[in-house]
Write a structure and sequence with these properties.
Helix content is 82%, strand content 0%. The protein is an all-alpha fold. Helix 2 runs antiparallel to helix 3. The longest helix has 42 residues. It starts with a helix and ends with a helix. Keywords: Membrane, Transmembrane, Transmembrane helix.
């Protein structure tokens, strides 16, 4: 019986040693990766952590821009569905891209 327990304990210790070695290897890889990232990041200029602007004005501008884009897309989809061929949809796409800033200004005058 004691030989059986000794064998089990040896197997358990072997498994634990393998797991510890795997954890150590993973920690070493993580450390090397972090060091590489820090080394590369030291060569790059500092990046702003601010993200996109928040607040009432920024939200209003996003909503206005989204509305303009949706209107232009809906217009182009309607032209594509209601006409045959490719000439009119292509022309409407070009015209809508050129006219989008004018439409935005007319809709959302400050």
């Amino acid at each position: 019986m004691s030989k059986e327990r000794a064998r089990r304990r040896e197997a358990r210790e072997h498994e634990q040693a393998l797991l510890a070695a795997a954890r150590a290897a993973e920690a070493e890889r993580r450390e090397r990766r972090t060091a590489r990232r820090r080394a590369v990041a030291s060569w790059l200029p500092e990046r702003s952590r601010a993200g996109r602007p928040t607040g009432v004005l920024a939200e209003r501008e996003r909503r206005q821009r989204t509305t303009t884009v949706v209107l232009v897309v809906v217009f182009n989809v309607l032209v594509a569905l209601l006409t045959d061929g490719w000439a009119w949809p292509a022309l409407s796409l070009v015209v809508s891209v050129l006219a989008a800033p004018v439409l935005h200004t007319l809709l959302f005058r400050r």
